[in-house]
Design brief:
The protein has 186 residues and is an alpha/beta fold. It is built from 8 helices and 7 strands, in the order βαβαββαβαβαβααα. The chain starts with a strand and ends in a 17-residue tail after the last helix.
Length: 186
Amino acid sequence: MTIQTISPTKLSEISERHEIELLDVRTQVEFREVHATMAQNVPLDSLNPADVMRQRTGNANQPLYVICLSGGRSMKACEAFVAAGFQNVVSVDGGTLAWDSAGLAVKRGLKTVSFERQVRITAGTIALAGSVVVMVTGNVAFAGIPAFIGAGLAFAGITDTCGMGMMLAKMPWNQCESPHTESCAT
């Protein structure tokens, strides 16, 4: 299955001539930090393609454009739409990073620690702790801790699916009452 893609500048040009629907599939916290002004937020982990298509405000025959941070999640979302029988979906190349870099209109909110950094911090801390326990106690059974983290990172790189990132996305500090408010759980 081949997913259609479009550059941010080309999509912006289309939006100047026609009303478009742009779906941002990042988490609410990521969306709150920065998003294309015309985007609506439906996080990938709660995406139901049939519900989205049923609730479309514009012409259902027009393409649905999908964006994320850099393009990976928007491709997965488009694949979910196609698998559900909806063919007219288009992923935005380079995501919000490319949109912002092109100087296109964005709305900025509260800055947060990115999921990538959160994963690095968590994985590094767990691997370091496991290694320290092995060194202090001499019990090599604890060597499984950093090995498990290393295996998880390798798996994430190979499959482009990060279990730790998905778990971190559910943490209270990564939740918002609404992506359009400053209020997030603490």
